[in-house]
Structure prediction request, 897 residues.
Amino acid sequence: MTARLRSLLTAPASRPDLMAKAPRSGPDAVFLDLEDGVPPGAKLSARPDAHTAAESLLADHPKLLVFARVNGLSTPWFDDDVAEALPLGLTGVVVPKLESSTDVDTVEAALDRAGLGGLPVMAGIESAAGVARVQEILRPPVAWCYFGAEDYVADLGGIRTPGNLEVLYARSRVALAARVAEVHAIDQIVADLRDETRYLHDAEEGRALGYQGKLCIHPAQVALAHQVFTPSAEEVERARRLLAAYDAAAARGEATLDFEGQMVDEPMARRARATLAAIGEPVITTPGSSPSAPRTRPR
Amino acid sequence: MTARLRSLLTAPASRPDLMAKAPRSGPDAVFLDLEDGVPPGAKLSARPDAHTAAESLLADHPKLLVFARVNGLSTPWFDDDVAEALPLGLTGVVVPKLESSTDVDTVEAALDRAGLGGLPVMAGIESAAGVARVQEILRPPVAWCYFGAEDYVADLGGIRTPGNLEVLYARSRVALAARVAEVHAIDQIVADLRDETRYLHDAEEGRALGYQGKLCIHPAQVALAHQVFTPSAEEVERARRLLAAYDAAAARGEATLDFEGQMVDEPMARRARATLAAIGEPVITTPGSSPSAPRTRPR
Amino acid sequence: MTARLRSLLTAPASRPDLMAKAPRSGPDAVFLDLEDGVPPGAKLSARPDAHTAAESLLADHPKLLVFARVNGLSTPWFDDDVAEALPLGLTGVVVPKLESSTDVDTVEAALDRAGLGGLPVMAGIESAAGVARVQEILRPPVAWCYFGAEDYVADLGGIRTPGNLEVLYARSRVALAARVAEVHAIDQIVADLRDETRYLHDAEEGRALGYQGKLCIHPAQVALAHQVFTPSAEEVERARRLLAAYDAAAARGEATLDFEGQMVDEPMARRARATLAAIGEPVITTPGSSPSAPRTRPR
Prediction:
């Protein structure tokens, strides 16, 4: 479903208390993190904890999107994370450091073996190889991705700076590939937990580049993400008017219309639906599977 | 022909008065716009108006490059725009929102059906898919392209800002692809008609990135585009000296020469010819068809 | 060998005095330049001079990396430069303006004919075509590359500015491709010899983008390059601790470990080795040939 995903709050899978509290800050989505958030010695015990916490969150917070992030394909934990930590009903599984289409095949096979065939995937794009091959990675069952700036720059051998110039190329390229693949793109973390101004500035940059939401590594960042990624009242009103006019035209058998002086067609209607989805209004389309309007080409 | 194209002024095809006045500000090129400039209700009547206006401009202003922009391939108007709005003698047809090599095939077929086979095309690169596939789009009969920042960012789901960081990746990539394909690249519009400083700054950026001219959506922008995209007197003098020395060397059967302490070969001569073309001096080469000097590799 | 290459000082091959003095500023590497540094009239006499100078430098400065840059493939000098200017024992040959994988084949064939098969190559990426095809160029025997901003922008038809925005796309793309190919990337020159602040700023940018060293066109730039590209004492200490823990884990048959609260695996060990190499500590791996750790994926 195209639910709004402006904020994606992480909670370590080895901390049942933090996982249980995650909804308090009102995020659109949480991910229970078996990877970076859990030290190697706690990897095994974190699996049942994540499973239990995810089930509770899904039961108690029906509007919350609940993800779990497993350890990467190259670790010894990946397959058993998939087999043991993911309850039925999960919104999706987050797989870090995907680097090729073959990696996506491996994820699909592991999900199938675990009886979770069809579970949508959020791809972590956070290495040089991942960015270099992002176009081939962003295909079903990948329905979301996030750009991991810290890991990307570490892998590149570069340096992270507040100016973000060193990630502008990769961050732009990932957002573009996501748009072409109709994948929901989530922007990089901001590591400094106390710097609200930087978070807001970083989020504005991400939104300008085409990201639709942002990672939150602390509950206090959730409200900041919502502040930036929520459409304005004016944008929402316009989207409602446009869709009303578009649906009326469709009922008359017309594919394009003159809306407030502008030619409107299916792509613009899709954007208007995304705007409404972003404020939580019910929508019917499904990302990745939404049928594009057939191109009308008179002979 | 490699004519200078520093400024490309738009005029709505539904406004015969504005089309007739377009040459007054002295642009290098105009395009009569059947797409964004014309509301859906006026699309049909704009075709004969554009046809008539283009014929008059070509007859009365022999040095002016005259283009017409048709509606996009996915609209119901594309084929009849091509069939009815384009007079013989037109400099080229502008096709917005091209997104693949297949789209270019479709344009060629439509031109053939309309008896306009061989008419060069200016490709609008202004969507996520268009930028992602720009390399395959920029091939004959495409001889020019423009980067449409507003449509690109809207399609991406991003936000346009005066800082232009959100388009730096795409704008750079389009300019590079154009250079490799030997296609003349035209830079994005500046929507704020009253902000001369922003236009000049934006044009300087575009020129630094490799663009050779800029869209003008108001006659007052034409002089600003010329101010930025005209080579300096010093650049012109150097180009003349270089070509004289190069032609003398060629007459002696030499492919490279020492020109003012620098090794000069065909690529540098080509750039010098482009400089002279940019100030309107006659040139003989044709973009896309100019033969590169064979690589001289002694066995 | 993965020797540190923070600074790469150029010396014109037509100037035996400057070549002999090149080690005085303490660069990690020098390249004796038969290309841009030598006017056409002196190309032939520069070959034996470069040959002799390289032999002396190799004999007298065993830790210095010694390269020679030949003229480009499209010049009449390329083959004889390779045949006559490169002594046995040279660290590598620098080939400017490589533009395709076919160009790399041509270089390999010329090296073979000259009895220099296996000599590693430093690729100059400094044209529109070179950047557009950088991924195919960076493969063995290419073990290093440099990004040539001045030539790239001239070829693009753009303008060089101190802000570097016009090269951010290409400079980022080259660094990323180099990382993926495990090629050592050297950053652009700074043409203004007297502006230390600009050099330092430019080097900081390059390091953030993933470059591992920088071109120096004057001996005074060598110390500046070292100032920026030398890891801090803290980075070095951490790398030593990490490798000790990693090697101990490997001796126990473990591929990953918990190091100071962070999961550590082969890629992080590789980075730690690179940090030590950057300060000149002995390392065993060879760039391009270093075997990646096999991915551990339990069935």
In short: Residues 7-229 of chain C form a domain with the TIM Barrel fold (CATH 3.20.20.60). Chain C touches chain A at residues 135, 168-169, 172-173, 175-177, 179-180, 204-205, 207-210, 212, 255-258, 261, 263, 265, 267, 271, 274, 295-299 (CB under 8 Å).
